[in-house]
Specification:
Layout lengths: L6 H17 L7 E4 L4 E7 L2 E7 L6 H20 L8 E6 L5 E8 L7 H7 L2 H18 L13 E4 L2 E4 L18 H4 L5 H17 L4 H14 L6 H9 L8 H32 L15
Antiparallel strand pairs: 1-2, 2-3, 3-5, 4-5, 6-7
Bound molecules: adenosine-5'-triphosphate (ATP) and magnesium ion.
Length: 296
C-alpha cells in the first residue's frame, strides 16, 4: 500500500496541533489511538485516511537528519528480518529558530483489526493462532541490536497477516549495547524532575526488554493485564514456554506488570503536573500532546 505524503494537509494538521497546544485543549483533534507516550492523529484526505504520529520537536536540522537515518535503518532492518512493517513516511516542516517538526505517517489501518481489539472480539482458537504467528515474528526479528515493542496494540491483522505499526521509536543498539536513538530528545516530554534520573538509571532497564525474545514476551504478557485480557495468559504461557530455555511463570508476568504499571503511572502523573505548571503557572504552552489517563 504505497502512498505519497499529503503535504498541504499535514501542514494544516500541524497548525491545528499548535492551536491545541496553545490552548491546552485537544478536543478539536481527531484522535486515532494512543500509547504510553503520545497521541496518534487521524488525517482524512480525498486520497484516504492517515495515521499521523507527531515526534518531539527537533532542536535543529542535524538532530532531525540523524533521526531520519535511524528510522530508515530501522524500517529496513525490520523488513529484512521478515517482519511486515506498516509503510511509513516521515514528513517534516521547518520552524522558527531552525527547529524541525516531524510526523511519522502511515495509512490508517482498520481499527477493528487491531490485535488488542481482536483478542477481545475473537475466540480462543483465533487467539492461539495469532499468538503462534506472533511468536514466529518476534523470534525472527529480535536480537541484541534490533528491538521490538511488541504489545498487542502495536499489531494489526490484515487478512491473516500481522502488520507492525509502532516504529516511531527505532529500537537499535550499537556493538557496545548503547541505544542508537536520540534518547535525550525522546525523553524531553518527561518532566524535568525525572529527566536526568530516568535517562541515567532507568533508560537501560526500560529498553533492555525490547532486545530479547524473553523480555519482549514478558512485556507482551504483562500488558494483557492492562488490556483486561488476563484470561489468555495461561494458554499463551504454554505456547511461549515451548520456545524459551528459561520459562516464564504467571507470577513473574504479574510482578512484571505491577512494576511496569507503577512506573508509567508515576510518569503520567508527573507529566500531567508538568503540563499544569507550564500552562497555568508559567503561562506557556506545554509542547506535547498527552495520552488520556490509563486505567491500570
Ligand atoms: N497505521 C495505523 N492505523 C490505524 N491505527 C493506528 C495506526 N498506527 C497507530 N494506530 C493506533 O494508535 C495506537 C498507538 O500507535 P503506536 O503504537 O504507533 O504509537 P505509541 O504506542 O504511542 O508509540 P510509543 O509507544 O512509541 O509512544 C495504536 O495502538 C493504534 O490504536
Ligand atoms: Mg504502541
Amino acid at each position: 500500500m504505497s502512498f505519497t505524503v499529503p503535504h498541504a494537509e499535514l501542514d494544516r494538521l500541524e497548525h491545528r496541533v499548535q492551536a491545541a497546544l496553545r490552548t491546552a485543549d485537544d478536543s478539536a483533534l481527531d484522535i486515532l489511538g494512543h500509547g504510553e507516550v503520545t497521541l496518534v492523529l487521524r488525517l482524512r484526505t480525498d486520497d484516504g485516511a492517515y495515521a499521523c504520529k507527531r515526534l518531539p520537536v527537533f532542536p535543529d536540522r542535524a538532530r532531525f537528519e540523524n533521526y531520519r537515518r535511524g528510522l530508515d535503518d530501522y524500517l529496513r532492518r525490520l523488513a529484512d528480518s521478515g517482519l511486515n512493517v506498516a509503510d511509513t513516511r516521515l514528513w517534516h516542516a521547518h520552524r522558527p529558530g531552525g527547529r524541525v517538526v516531524a510526523y511519522c505517517v502511515q495509512r490508517e489501518l482498520p481499527e477493528r483489526r487491531l490485535c488488542s481489539r481482536l483478542l477481545h472480539t475473537e475466540d480462543e482458537t483465533w487467539a492461539k493462532d495469532f499468538f503462534s504467528r506472533f511468536l514466529d515474528q518476534v523470534d525472527r526479528t529480535v536480537s541484541p541490536s534490533l528491538g521490538l515493542d511488541a504489545q498487542a496494540s502495536n499489531w494489526v491483522d490484515t487478512g491473516g497477516e500481522l502488520v507492525y505499526v509502532d516504529v516511531t521509536t527505532p529500537l537499535m543498539r550499537d556493538e557496545r549495547g548503547r541505544e542508537k536513538l536520540d534518547v535525550r530528545l525522546f525523553f524531553t516530554s518527561l518532566p524535568w524532575v525525572l529527566r536526568d534520573a530516568v535517562r541515567l538509571s532507568m533508560s537501560k532497564s526500560i529498553f533492555d526488554k525490547f532486545y530479547g525474545t524473553r523480555g519482549v514476551l514478558l512485556d507482551f504478557l504483562g500488558n494483557l493485564h492492562k488490556e483486561r485480557l488476563d484470561a489468555l495468559i495461561p494458554a499463551f504461557l504454554e505456547q511461549a514456554n515451548g520456545r524459551l530455555t528459561e520459562p516464564i511463570t504467571a507470577a513473574e508476568v504479574a510482578a512484571y506488570y505491577r512494576g511496569d504499571a507503577r512506573m508509567w503511572e508515576l510518569i503520567q502523573r508527573l507529566r500531567a503536573a508538568d503540563r499544569f505548571w507550564h500552562f497555568k503557572v508559567l503561562r506557556r504552552p506545554y509542547p506535547f500532546l498527552l495520552p488520556p489517563p490509563v486505567d491500570r
